[in-house]
Amino acid sequence: MTTTKRSLILAGGGLKVAFQAGVLQVWLDEAGLTFDHADGASGGCFNLAMLCQGMSGTQIADAWRRTKPVHGANVDLATLARRDALLTMDRYRSEVFTTWGLDWDAIRASQQEATFNVCNFNRYELQIRTPDQMSEDLLVACVSLPMWFPPVEIDGETYVDAVYLTDANLEEAIRRGADEIWVIWTVSEEGVWRPGFVNAYFQIIEIAANGRFRQLVQRIQNNNAAIAAGQHGEFGRRIELKVLRAEVPVNYILDVGADRLHEAVNSGVQVAREWCAAAGIPLTRRAEPAPATDPSTLAFTEDMRGFVMPGEADYDDGFRRARKEGLRLSVHLTITVDDVDAFVTSPQHAARITGHVSSDTLGDKLPVEDGTFQLFVDRGQPSRKEMRYRLYFRDGDGRPLTLVGTKVVVDDVGADIWSDTTTLYTSIRPGHVDPADDDSVDVAAAGIISIHLLDFLHQLTTFRVGGPVAARPAALSRFGTLFLGKLWDVYARRILPWGP
Question: Beta-carbon neighbour count of residue 52 at 10 Å?
């Protein structure tokens, strides 16, 4: 009987590998996938160490959910004075590794076939270390990016991150007999050059990592084509390559937000579940976090008004025609976050909506029977985000309707942050329509409504926080940090020397 050997490639990506941990929760625990071999490079070595220790995918994901970036890389004046690096890994050793519960005896005793990649600078050589050879010093060396972190001296030799040699060692997996290679890739492939020294440094890494990875992918494709044509091929057997890619809106090493890391983990869970569904991989269980027993809540009101035209499907044309005919539409909404912690750490950022819709054509103060709001969600493009509204209501004659609205937040030429965050492209569909059915239901009316300046100033006075009194300031702060952080992702990337 022929058996298939499956390798798991935990590619690098700095703090972006928090997303990778969410994928592991799904692949290992929810889908029950097993891997004969696992390889880690750069930041992926963090997750590989936990995997070798025997942690489940959910335990690895939870370790990142507990991680606070400010407890990691730190400035050390002595290191700066020696001009060795800008930061050190000392607090990773003393705080992050402790939070993760790394046990080096357990890691070295691991029965998992695994390979860690590290660069021996003295020999200009990529070296492979198996779990029995690993130590805390070697793990730190695996992620010590030159300039940012000092090299690690071990037995008289100098070691640094292997990223310039490999960020995903597919060749090692093939050498060890892999027939299937499963890759989690979080290095950005956005392909947009951004100014500034910090951006340039990581964009050089992206050149090295993506360039090398794509060369290897092409070699595998050429090999498989040769095998299919009856030839021997470079590797002598067909190699099936499965790659889950993601643009993760977290900086490689400079991010300071614990909620952003937590969200990256949860985004990995969401994307992996969707990826498995598309690939026909069944999930036998779902690992869901326990609901908070006494969550903080938050609510605020929002008023928008403008013009919506019946019988029109185009937003701009509908707005112009409706304004000419004086066909107004307005909404008065209360947006309620029932659990602030879940809201800020979920990639969906979903909240409830209540309130009413008023329209010159549909009726006045029509109650919203049910509604959802999503704050700054993206679908794999961090530089473009959307605020989404869905309101279920009935017109004056009792006919069910759905208002679907989207604010598109993207960094166009010019100062457009105000218009992006206040302009709602609005359509109305007959019936109470689920999001999945939007494309199959005709648009009954379309136009644009927006927040006016005085309404916005009033909105700022309506924020109310509930739940434990001691937790309320932090809840409001976390919501504000989320809001400003998402705006940073979109608008600051182009003009500042660092970005996600």
Answer: 26
pTM of the full structure: 0.92
Report pLDDT digits (tens) over 254-286.
Answer: 877 899 999 999 999 999 999 999 999 999 988
289 has pLDDT over 80: no
CA proximity to 438, closest of 485, 404, 463, 461:
404
Residues 3-26: pLDDT tens digits?
A: 899 999 999 999 999 999 999 999
Q: What is the signed CA dihedral for 477, 482, 488, 489, rounded to 10 degrees?
A: 160
Q: What is the C-alpha end-to-end distance of the chain, expressed in Å?
A: 48
What is the radius of gyration, based on Cα positions, of the chain? 26
| 157-160 and 113-120 strand pairing | antiparallel
- Cα 102 to Cα 50, 63, 99: the distances in Å are 7, 10, 8
CA–CA distance, 458 with 455 (Å, rounded to integer)? 5
Is the distance from CB of 318 to CB of 446 less than 8 angstroms?
yes
What is the CB-side half-sphere exposure of residue 114 using CA atoms within 13 A? 26
Residue 436 has pLDDT above 70, yes or no: yes
CA separation for the pair 428, 390 (Å, rounded) = 10
Encoded tokens for 376 = 């700054």
SS (H, E, C) the chain: CCCCCEEEEECCCHHHHHHHHHHHHHHHHHCCCCCCEEEECCCHHHHHHHHHHCCCHHHHHHHHHCCCHHHCCECCHHHHHHCCCCCECHHHHHHHHHHHCCCHHHHHCCCCEEEEEEEECCCCEEEEECHHHCCHHHHHHHCCCCCCCCCEEECCEEEECCCCCCCCCHHHHHHCCCCEEEEEECCCCCCCCCCCHHHHHHHHHHHHHHHHHHHHHHHHHHHHHHHHCCCCCCCCCCCEEEEEECCCCCCCCCCCCHHHHHHHHHHHHHHHHHHHHHHCCCCCCCCCCCCCCCCCEEEEEEEEEEEEEECCCCHHHHHHHHHHHCCEEEEEEEEEECCHHHHHHCCCCEEEEEEEEEECCCEEEEECCEEEEEEEECCCCCCEEEEEEEEEEECCCCCEEEEEEEEEEECCCCCCHHHHHHEEEEEEEECCCCHHHHHHCCCCEEEEEECCHHHHHHHCCCCEEECCHHHHHHHHHHHHHHHHHHHHHHHHCCCCCCCC
Structure tokens at 117: 């990649």
Evaluate whether 295 touches 339 at the Cβ level (below 8 Å).
yes
Pick from 465, 467, 469, 389: nearest CA to 422: 389
Q: Look at strands 240-245 and 180-185 and give their pairing.
A: parallel
How far apart (Å, rounded) are the C-alpha atoms in residues 24 and 353? 34
Quick one: which of 332, 335, 377 has its CA closest to 359? 332
C-alpha span between 201 and 217 (Å, rounded) = 24
